[in-house]
Design goal:
The complex is a heterodimer of chains A (484) and B (502). Chain A is mostly helical and 484 residues long. Chain A has one domain (4-481). Chain A has 22 helices and 2 strands. Chain A has a two-stranded antiparallel sheet. In chain A, a hairpin with a 4-residue loop joins strand 1 (62-64) and strand 2. In chain A, helix 11 runs antiparallel to helix 12. Chain A is globular. In chain B, strand 1 (61-69) and strand 2 (74-80) form a beta hairpin. A two-stranded antiparallel ribbon of chain B has the order 1-2. Chain B has one domain (2-497). Chain B is 76% helix and 3% strand. Chain B has helices at residues 5-23, 28-52, 82-101, 110-129, 133-142, 144-154, 159-188, 193-197, 203-220, 229-236, 239-264, 266-271, 273-292, 297-323, 329-364, 375-378, 380-393, 400-415, 417-441, 449-452, 459-477, 480-497, and strands spanning 61-69, 74-80. The chains are: A mainly alpha (484), B mainly alpha (502).
Chain lengths: 484, 502
């Protein structure tokens, strides 16, 4: 029987479920003209959930429902950022959705359910919760990608995402079943991540365990979008409606980091010497493929997709370091990436209008003349993504590189740094288009007059500069979460 | 104010850039006057350094230190020695002149231009007083951003190529420095430069770190063979951009050598001094010849910059070579001093040369030497300044160019007469390309009818050129204050070279 304590621990999640259901009902009985109310309610719900997460923050790691659910600092930080970026997405998305007649209640409820999936996933203490959270997030995302169901490209992207995503989930599940099996050989079978930590010590089938680990890493690689499991990323990023892409690039990446941490560190921590090298290989491949292919892209969303792949390579550098320092650096990286990518897509959303997606890089031509403030924000975002000091993205890169060097993987650090130079080019190219090119004939580049969008986006992009100048507390928070 | 003099110097121009930006394209004159005000204020504040800094005491003075990132032990810590003070004064001085120089010339988005200049100035001052390695690195990289914008928006026809090359090339070098710094952090658990300087390192470690630093700074200086971004960047940059690039930004490279290579890897530095000396001599001789055949005035001066910066690196590494031989301590000191004087002098001379070219370019919109000829007939006052700076560029006694070169040649003679012979070559080649440039541009008959329509320099241009001329002559005739300002710091630096770390 669940105790009151269990329910208290899961209060933010319960609240979010209840609120999402209410929003769903409200939407059903609402006149279309009242829909802005739903928009603000959804944002309010997300903000209240952030409050509940922070207010109920436990001193120590606590578990609920017999270890199924873990509430610790790591999950708290990831939840706060996932909820926060999702609230930002709601603000950025409104004018875009209105222009495309997609301003419907389903967007908000699906988005909230996806975030709920993220919250469960990052708090998972058991294979079952983990899988539950993953599927809740993924299924909501598939539906979100297909939101504009009459349009060809999003439908194609959704099918692709769904098929590949289901395959990856299957791999993950298959891996989990092998690990479960291995845990039963020589001991009591367990799905509990904390207990699986020591399976290696007693199992009579270590090869089965390793096999399971490999399948799980495939699943993780897919969710992160790390090469060679990155094929879905460019198509989905390009095909999905931009607000949905934003979520896939932020909330779902935070979730993927959480999943990787739970599975590898909590669950398979004893096998770290085995998965370290696997992650290092994934990291190098992601860095190489992401950065090199991004150079030739002409579509901004696709370019950002490949840039995501390379960023996941950096994140993996931190994870591959396999120690509290590495995890803290990787989490810092995940957080910084979420903030940066939300801002980058936010600019696209701010410039898009009816019939103009603003998703080609060439669409940004002469932005500095048409709208200097937006150009300046995009400049900050691009330099931050490229990792130029003193912006936020640089420190994130420096931290994962330090983590790699710290765990005696100097070569990995050097690979990372070399690809940072290559990656610099395509970010600078965007700045070149915005600043050095003349605007095209009849260019209508103007940011939307939507005040909340402009204010939040400005704060979002300026936060890259502010956090770049003063990132100490955030990093200290990340380190604290891993007991440093 | 005096407790935070350095912070004020850094943040005044950066913060001043914001109202200039806000003045907007609609009020260009407000933006111009505001930026001039900020630049002059910064210069005035920098003059207080002369009062507050005590040259004879030596060491790092005017310390400011605050914990910046607790978990990494990174400090926002600033301090200056004599070399920094000289470089900061030069930056603030040049800072005013580029603002004045761009007054009418930049008509397209002047507020953004001025703001970028001011922010660049603040960041450069920051580089010259950072004493935390990570803070130094962050500023060292951050200066690329405004320069990238300056060349890219207001540059010449091939500006996009040049500015991308500039950014990526420089970034390429500095990331290796980052790796080296992270490695040092693993060893020392701090980024404090004084602690890093005292860190014992094996020869193998020193060698790796030495080359990581050398790549970063050699590209910035730039040294042969990684100098190729400079001619492109200079040619395409707007006049103000070229002036700041040549006068101040290149010094960041040599300053980095002084602050990082010298104290952290003295043994590797001494061991590989021959390599850097060789590269410097190639820069002096070969690049001198390359300058001789240039048809573009800006390119010519850009190559001559590479050759002159070769003198700076030569002087520094001659000191490396000499200081460990008994009895050559004074000569090592002389070489280092010469390098420092050359660093400051080159700032003024090259800045002035680029300003002169800018003045001509504004009138004729070409930088090709063959389009000119007989300019002196229509612009006698301009000709006067141009000849003066040309003389300084070839190192005529009485101008600032002579002092540093002479000291470096003298020091290198005691290392090896051969080094001195090649170094002294510059007096011939330098005179060759500079005087030939003057001959083709200024003297002779007017062949191009457009040259006949060129107007004499106006008051604003005269002010800029006269200010440069004053600095060049003052340093040439009476270098003593500058040598005194840097003296103790330089000798302390040389003493540090002699310390074995192994």
């Amino acid at each position: 029987m669940p105790t009151l304590n269990d329910i208290l621990i899961l209060l933010p999640e319960f609240y979010l479920v209840a609120a999402a259901c209410l929003l769903l009902l409200l939407d059903a009985f609402m006149k279309p003209a009242q829909r802005p109310l739903l928009h603000w309610l959804a944002i309010a719900v997300l903000l209240v959930t952030i409050y509940l997460v922070i207010a109920g923050q436990p001193e120590q790691s606590v578990t609920a429902f017999g270890g199924m659910f873990v509430r610790d600092q790591v999950s708290e930080i990831l939840k706060v950022f996932a909820l926060g970026t999702t609230a930002m997405i709601c603000v950025y998305a409104r004018p875009y959705l209105i222009d495309r007649k997609l301003f419907i209640g389903e967007f908000y409820t699906l988005l909230i359910f996806a975030v709920l999936g993220v919250m469960l996933l990052v708090s998972a203490g058991n294979f079952v919760t983990l899988y539950l959270g993953l599927e809740l997030m993924s299924l909501s995302s598939y539906a979100l990608v297909a939101l504009n169901r009459d349009s060809k490209l999003p439908s194609e992207a959704a099918i692709k995402y769904f098929v590949l995503g289901a395959l990856a989930s299957g791999m993950l599940l298959y891996g989990m079943s092998m690990v479960y099996g291995a845990s039963g050989m020589g001991g009591t079978p367990s799905l509990d991540l904390a207990q699986l930590h020591h399976v290696m010590a007693y199992t009579t089938a270590p090869n089965l365990l390793l096999f399971g680990l490999i399948f799980m890493i495939v699943g993780i690689g897919f969710k992160l979008g790390a090469a060679p499991f990155h094929m879905w990323i460019p198509d989905v990023y390009q095909g999905a409606p931009t607000p949905v892409t934003t979520f896939i690039a932020s909330g779902s990446k935070l979730a993927a980091f959480g999943m990787a941490y739970r599975l590898l560190s909590s669950g398979m921590g004893d096998l770290s010497q085995h998965w370290q090298l696997m992650l290092a290989v994934l990291a190098v491949l992601s860095l190489a493929i992401g950065n090199l292919v991004a150079i030739v892209q002409t579509n901004l969303k696709r370019m950002l997709a490949y840039s995501t792949i390379s960023h996941m390579g950096y994140l993996l550098l931190g994870l591959a370091a396999a120690g509290p320092e590495g995890y803290a650096a990787a989490m810092f990286y995940a957080l910084s990436y979420a903030v940066m990518s939300v801002a980058a897509f936010g600019v696209i959303l701010a410039l898009a209008r009816a019939g103009f997606e603003c998703e080609e890089i060439a669409d940004l031509k002469g932005l500095n003349q048409k709208s200097p403030w937006m150009a300046f924000l995009m400049l900050l975002i691009m330099l931050s993504l490229a990792g130029v000091p003193p912006l936020f993205g640089f420190w994130a890169k420096a931290l994962v590189l330090e983590a790699a060097i710290h765990s005696h993987m100097m070569w990995l650090g050097i690979v990372g740094i070399v690809f940072a130079i290559i990656g610099l080019y395509y970010y600078l190219y965007v700045i070149k288009v915005m600043y050095f090119d003349k605007p095209a004939e009849g260019s209508v580049l103007q940011s939307k007059p939507d005040v909340p969008l402009r204010v939040v986006l400005s704060l979002n992009a300026l936060s890259l500069l502010v956090l770049g100048l003063y990132w100490g507390p955030l990093f200290a928070w990340c380190r604290h979460a891993f007991g440093l | 104010m005096f407790n935070h003099l350095l912070s004020l110097l850094i943040w005044l121009p950066i913060a001043g850039g914001i109202p200039v930006l806000l003045a907007g394209a609609s009020r260009p004159n407000l933006a111009r006057w505001l930026s001039l005000l900020v630049a002059v204020l910064t210069f005035v504040v920098s003059l207080f350094l002369l009062v507050q800094y005590h040259p004879d005491a030596g060491g790092m003075q005017l310390n400011e230190s605050y914990l910046w990132i607790a978990s990494w032990g990174v400090h926002y810590s600033l301090a200056v020695d004599g070399i920094s003070v000289a470089l900061i004064l030069m930056s603030t001085f040049v800072g005013i002149l580029v603002i004045v120089g761009a007054w009418q010339v930049i008509q397209d988005k002047p507020h953004q231009y001025m703001a970028a200049m001011l922010i660049l100035e603040g960041l450069l001052i920051g580089v010259f007083c950072a004493t935390d390695a990570l803070l130094f690195y962050a500023l060292f990289e951050a200066i690329l951003i405004p320069m990238f914008i300056l060349i890219g928006i207001w540059g010449g026809p091939r500006r996009v190529y040049a500015t991308l090359k500039f950014f990526i090339y420089t970034f390429f070098g500095s990331v290796f420095m980052l790796i080296a710094l992270l490695y040092l952090y693993q060893q020392a658990h701090t980024f404090d430069m004084a602690t890093l300087a005292a860190l014992p390192l094996t020869m193998q470690e020193q060698t790796w770190i030495f080359f990581a630093f050398l790549i970063a700074f050699a590209i910035k200086v730039p040294m042969v063979p990684v100098h190729t971004w400079l001619p492109d960047a200079h040619v395409e940059a707007p006049t103000g951009g070229s002036v700041v690039l040549a006068a101040v930004m290149l010094k960041v490279g040599t300053y980095g050598i002084l602050r990082f290579i010298l104290p952290i890897t003295p043994d590797a530095g001494a061991h590989y001094a021959w390599l850097v000396i060789l590269l410097s001599l190639i820069a002096i001789v070969y690049i001198g010849y390359v300058a001789l055949v240039q048809e573009d005035m800006k390119k010519l001066v850009a190559y001559s910059s590479v050759a002159h910066m070769g003198f700076v690196t030569l002087g520094i590494f001659i000191a490396f070579m000499l200081v460990r031989q008994p009895g050559y301590g004074d000569m090592a000191l002389l070489g280092m001093q010469g390098a420092m004087v050359q660093m400051i002098s080159h700032g003024f001379v090259s800045g002035a040369m680029f300003t002169c070219i800018g003045v001509m370019y504004d009138r004729l919109h070409t930088r090709q030497i063959k389009d000119y000829g007989g300019v002196i007939n229509v612009m006698p006052w301009f000709g006067f300044f141009y000849v003066l700076f040309a003389m300084a560029n070839c190192g005529l006694p009485g101008t600032s160019g002579f002092v540093g070169e002479f000291m470096v040649i003298l020091a290198s003679f005691s290392a090896s007469p051969w080094i001195a012979l090649f170094a002294a070559f510059t007096l011939v080649i330098g005179a060759g390309y500079t005087l030939w440039l003057v001959k083709r541009v200024l003297w002779g008959d007017i062949t191009n009818p457009h040259v006949a329509e060129m107007k004499e320099i106006n008051g604003r241009e005269t002010f800029v050129l006269a200010a440069f001329a004053a600095a060049v002559l003052a340093l040439g005739v009476w270098p003593q204050p500058l040598v005194h300002l840097m003296g103790t710091s330089v000798s302390q630096l040389v003493q540090q070279l002699a310390i074995h770390k192994i």
